[in-house]
Amino acid sequence: MTDQGLLLVFDQTVSRAGVDGWIRHLESAGAPTQAYRLGSSLVLPVSDVDVLDTAGPDLPAPTRQAPRVVGASLWSRELRPAGTRVTLGPTTIGDGSVAVIAGPCAVETPEQMMTTAAAVAEHGAVGLRGGVFKPRTWPYSFQGLKWDGLDMLVQARERTGLPFVTEVAEPEHVKRLAEVVDGFQIGARNMQNFALLSAVGQSGLPVVLKRGFGCTVEETLAAGEYLLHEGNDQVVLCERGIRTFEPSARFTLDVTAVAVWKQRTHLPVMADPSHSGGRPELVEPLSLAAVGAGADALLIDVHVQPELALCDGNQALRPPQFAGLMARLASAAAGLGRQLSRADSNGARASTTGERA
Amino acid sequence: MTDQGLLLVFDQTVSRAGVDGWIRHLESAGAPTQAYRLGSSLVLPVSDVDVLDTAGPDLPAPTRQAPRVVGASLWSRELRPAGTRVTLGPTTIGDGSVAVIAGPCAVETPEQMMTTAAAVAEHGAVGLRGGVFKPRTWPYSFQGLKWDGLDMLVQARERTGLPFVTEVAEPEHVKRLAEVVDGFQIGARNMQNFALLSAVGQSGLPVVLKRGFGCTVEETLAAGEYLLHEGNDQVVLCERGIRTFEPSARFTLDVTAVAVWKQRTHLPVMADPSHSGGRPELVEPLSLAAVGAGADALLIDVHVQPELALCDGNQALRPPQFAGLMARLASAAAGLGRQLSRADSNGARASTTGERA
Amino acid sequence: MTDQGLLLVFDQTVSRAGVDGWIRHLESAGAPTQAYRLGSSLVLPVSDVDVLDTAGPDLPAPTRQAPRVVGASLWSRELRPAGTRVTLGPTTIGDGSVAVIAGPCAVETPEQMMTTAAAVAEHGAVGLRGGVFKPRTWPYSFQGLKWDGLDMLVQARERTGLPFVTEVAEPEHVKRLAEVVDGFQIGARNMQNFALLSAVGQSGLPVVLKRGFGCTVEETLAAGEYLLHEGNDQVVLCERGIRTFEPSARFTLDVTAVAVWKQRTHLPVMADPSHSGGRPELVEPLSLAAVGAGADALLIDVHVQPELALCDGNQALRPPQFAGLMARLASAAAGLGRQLSRADSNGARASTTGERA
Amino acid sequence: MTDQGLLLVFDQTVSRAGVDGWIRHLESAGAPTQAYRLGSSLVLPVSDVDVLDTAGPDLPAPTRQAPRVVGASLWSRELRPAGTRVTLGPTTIGDGSVAVIAGPCAVETPEQMMTTAAAVAEHGAVGLRGGVFKPRTWPYSFQGLKWDGLDMLVQARERTGLPFVTEVAEPEHVKRLAEVVDGFQIGARNMQNFALLSAVGQSGLPVVLKRGFGCTVEETLAAGEYLLHEGNDQVVLCERGIRTFEPSARFTLDVTAVAVWKQRTHLPVMADPSHSGGRPELVEPLSLAAVGAGADALLIDVHVQPELALCDGNQALRPPQFAGLMARLASAAAGLGRQLSRADSNGARASTTGERA
Question: Looking at this predicted complex, what is its ipTM?
């Protein structure tokens, strides 16, 4: 998983003209390339390393160099050793804290969404989840409230002050959703829906990219590259369990993937213990395991009445269980020299949250 | 994988009014349902079997009854015990013969497509393959010629008289492609792209549905149900290898899936030994294995110059290898009491192909 | 995974005569059974629950009842809700602390074993590991020093005061090894070597039972039952990674298995992040993940010169890395309300513990 | 999976003195090696290919050379391009025909074994199977009749003239069994029980080596090497299904493994569709698939009364189903230019073959 190429990184102190000089030099040397944007930096992939020797003294020195894996490898940790912070409304993911995003699997009713949102906000979640477009295995299953459900998420955000993420499943939904949502979620079944990835990349909004349950760690990076490639670096990689021969849980949470992504990429990593384990009693141990492996964030299904849920209710925590989880997580994070990400207060986060810097 | 429901099947001899009578009866009995079309039949799912006892004598008797798994289970073999024939231009898949669809993984140039098409037609293929929209793991890989490639497929069809299938990856491409193609292919990475499934289902055109490499036999049925559910019964299920721990081939061809689908569904089953094995020397044994397990059709990568291919060239057969495969398949099919599906002649298939009836 | 039977548990306050009365009663009622020993308790499986109604008043009441899964289900948490403590020389596994067993994959030389043992003891390990019988995939690989290596383990124990476990691979080795070792290890490839399980069970010594990399959570319980069934309750279940499609690490550590075993059994659970991840940089995140999921113990490969190791050197930690791991683990354990198991706090450890302070 | 070494093969026309000359030469040149026996040939692994240049003219030329993978790679097809024939009593496996070994999963009673044996012989099996030592997942399951069952196999052999294979699970059973059995079977759970492999290798008897359900194609070769390494080339590799995420059958039959082994090794390959599929209706399609992929032999569970079987009865064929399978296989084999192995055409079979006509 390496080729012989190199990546030249130029931060914002380098002029665009200087970068264009490099592009012209490489082209004239028979190694044409193009620049990719990574936040405020520009990345130039170089396939023929020898051409660096012939660069004239007028060309600006790159801020850093890194080996490349394929293309521009925009996820590579060596491009941004300090890591990427993803800004989800007032919440930051990737600042060293543990951010918990919680809510129902699917938005069902205004009451269900509002009471669940209030409960998770009360117990320390810093973001909401709730699906309105629900890709389902069988066509006969509840497919979500679609556009009707979006308002309920907006109201829950207004009530709690917490940002929300929601799944987008079709490229043509991206623009309309982008006007409202704080962040997108791309589901496991769509991880290699490349048209969707490109559209979401172009939105520039934060995106939680869930690993396909049959896809590798590297394929997840490749899917992330589709997003980054569009100039969107607000990407969170999410491990949600893979398919294995083991039947004792719904999926097998691959904590090794969490560790590998943290080591190899600059992107924040999330884990979804609810969809992975598929049972409430597995959520706490899997959450603690994921945080132990280095996860920056967790995505937790919570429902005020799981027995009435229209989707995956059998894995949701009730609010008191969620409160217990949060207490346990706070203590565990401290043991790892970290802390739970906290909203400033219930509904009133300041824009300058010093403790999350 | 069974619930307590029942499916009532009404063939074209039963009036729509009679079916509507059943729908009203079930609704009034507190078990509302809706009719689904399966070819010229209508299928009524009944969740509460007891309500059959109260049906009046004026209601027409169903042509057959079958247990249901979920929803309308439109793939269930019990709905159509004789099996479904899929009509791909002049070619029939599912009539007991072995149909071979062959061609390059990706359409690259007019010459490459034409010479490959001519070669596979000469050696007995009854359909062409060739991708113009190529979903690729990395954004930097060749993504297909897109619309420009479509003409090359059309020309190859004109030259050889063979129908072609090509992959569709975005719902909004369906209508434009449907004007030209003989059949669609839905790729493994899109098997659970439900918007795409619905759009392709609505087209009414034949579709080769490739199993996702991380998806189960049952999930493939569920994806097929999305197509059938739109009234399109021209569905071919395609096994193309699954992800396992075994690294000695690209994927593990699951011939058990072929056997299970043949036993449980009325849909024809195809296998793709090229993408599964990933090496030319595995194509023949995997083809013979798939046919042994009951496959109705094979999808084979052939390229006149595999070493120059822009996509998956390392798995393509050269024309002479393909000729050898076809000879071997013809003999093996005979041993199974079957025969290779044959076009009437190179380029001149009559519309009344008695031998394929 | 449940049948209709029941388990009657009689602790040591119940006379053997009383249990024999139950056995006679059940036999006369047409439901013969036999008693199994679980520590100081006796367990009577009852297949026909109705026969309990006819038990006379002279029969002693069982201490507790539990549903059974199969046979006597001697691993079931309901038989011993407080959990089992496994006593490995002066070390206890399963008392709530986190016990770290460390050492080289294979014993190679007296110096290698002694220096490694001294290092891991200094940094807080409470047990030693080191293989002398090494099952290897190919017959040409180093197969261990066999009996010659055993003395080196003994000397390391004398020097450090730490108990050791070592792998046993053949039933006929059990007795001779049992005279010397503190505990056995059964390797992943032998998890279903039932003759070996029986022999080790009969030894009564502690045993670390490694899950086969292709075996399920439930099959591991079944293998554990072979040990328990012989009256040996000193069993530690060890997760060491399973085979999946994911190639980015040697195996996929299944932390869900750790959680499930903790919830369903009374046995302590260990994890082996070294063999699972196969790379030094994965040992710390996988260790923290396993402890987060509830592991009672860790098995860590440490080598003073990994580059010279004859077996799996590429996954071993160097002593300074191990020291860093232990510091991190101590803090993480505190965050979980636990602590690292410590050699000198376990009581009866030898007086020569100065170097381990 | 290749190193830089070479294998020198000397057939029986080369004197042992000549081979010893090579060994001395290589030793004196600083590349010591040892000779391995492969049937009547000797194989010399050479790690440093340069030393061949300095070999004197007095050293005999090797019969052939081959690249080596590891050690002596005694399974490599290049060592014996014509393939190995395994002689199981009067039956030959690996001569191009399709050999069917059939019988009950477990020997249960004299009547069950005898009637099943007579039935499978009547319908064309050329060998019997029947387990007397049954490794079982749970200690409470029927573990086989052990030594008592062996006589029943012997009697079935006497009655039918067919050789039998039976599973051996413990090294110390090998010698006693070797006095009676025609061939050994090593079960999937013991594929990496290396002490067992060595003992069976030393017996020199034919052995069916079943692939572990969590083991790779290459690990199976390595296990075979343990047998070959002892000078025993009478090894049949057996694919019996692997563990995957797919739950629709008991295991996933890996026909790619069959093809890869046929291409890479000189050993005959068997498949076990009964244990793989786990259901009678899957036996025929999986058998045909395996033969299509190149299998030399099949191992089929047959039971006269599956509903009474003590082990895996739910996958056994009844005799009439077996007869149908054999007819179908005969035709399919013909289509592949092969034929079913027949008891009376194998030559030296006993005169009491009347009932097998």
Answer: 0.95
